[in-house]
Amino acid sequence: MNRVFVQGCEIALQLWSDFNKSQYVKRVCKSCRQFILLSGILVVFGISGSFAQSNSSRPLRIIVPFAAGSLTDTVMRIVTPALSEKLAMTIVIENRPGANGIIGTDVVAKSPPDGYTYLMGGAGINAQAPSLYKSLPYDQMKDFVPVVRFGMLPFLLVVNPKVPVESVTELIEYAKKNPGKLAYATPNTATLVGMGTFKRRAGVDVLAVPYKSSPQAMIDLVSGQVQLLIADFATAMPHVKAGNARVIAVTMSRRSSLLPNVPTIGEVLNGYDNTAWLGLFAPTGTPPEMLTRISNALISVLATREMHEMLSRVGFDIAPMGPEVFGPYVNEQISTWGRLILESGIKPE
Predict the structure, then answer these.
(1) 28 close to 36: Cβ distance less than 8 angstroms
(2) Which of 16, 188, 220, 348 has a C-alpha 20 to 30 A away from that of 51?
(3) Which residues of 160-194 are buried (b: 16+ CB within 10 A; e: fewer)?
């Protein structure tokens, strides 16, 4: 129940109790006393309603720990207008890129849990990072509350057009003939784990080059500074369509409905799966009523046909989970990715 409503009831009851105990009560008829009580209640709820209205004018702040133009950022910006209307609240998106998402994630971890700050996270930063780093400035299990999973997204293995390969098999053969001559960008943990697993299973020697953001990594792939990149659909496809990059595979366990003719890496390297997801998180201690309000609004927005159509255009597959399901799912994902990272031979930094 709304705290403002409860407080209003408590104040109204106290006023009625005090009035009944007063020396004037016997001089007032029953109907007059009821009128006085009703007037008092209206005054109380007028004051508390004004408080609630002024408090709701405070904007929600959603931290995206990656650069503007990344898929995480794109999905959040597509959803925001409808979510803002549903909540009748202003939503401010802040991009805090750097350190594979750790910088922005840490901002949320250390923000007051007042219900007005959230993290647009995902598999990379919330499930893979705990096993990729010896220490993080926050504790994923203790410092965050999963709110809603938005859905799944395909990643694409793309190459610079000057690299003479058209398939995963050709890429492996070329890399083996040219050890150490190919470089791949690592703008996020999804890329780091995806390429690390690829190298391990394919038995190839390619150089990792760290980047702060996917858009910058994509620009450098186009210019030839790096030759390989696992990129999200929104970042890669404009360059693929322009002929500045070549997609040779998707990283999921199944082919993408948006690119049905593009094979998966797993069709060559059996069992390979680097499926990513996005979801909203809040600092631990956030009021339950705010978590419920945000999650209900998000699930309602994600269920609309318009949202499905808009997100499918950037290669995003809506598959929402509420907090009661999303929480256990995140815990399972942390365990699963921990095992995969260990098997891939990636050493925690």
Answers:
(1) yes
(2) 16
(3) beebebeebeebbebbeeeeeebbbbbbbbbbbbb
Q: In terms of pTM, does the model score above 0.85?
A: no
Alpha-helical runs (H) found in the chain: 3-21, 30-56, 71-87, 102-109, 123, 129-132, 140-143, 168-177, 189-202, 214-223, 233-241, 288-302, 305-312, 323-344
Secondary structure (H, E, C), 124-184: HHHHHHHHHCCCCCCCHHHHEEEEEEEEEECEEEEECCCCCCCCHHHHHHHHHHCCCCCEE
Could you tell me how far CA 239 lies from the centroid of its own chain? 24
- Cα–Cα distances (Å) from 324 to 44, 147, 229, 239, 291, in that order, read 36, 9, 35, 39, 11
- The 10 Å Cβ neighbour count of residue 215 is 20
Query: How many residues are given for the chain?
Result: 349
pLDDT in tens, 229-272: 999 888 899 999 999 999 999 998 888 877 889 999 999 999 89
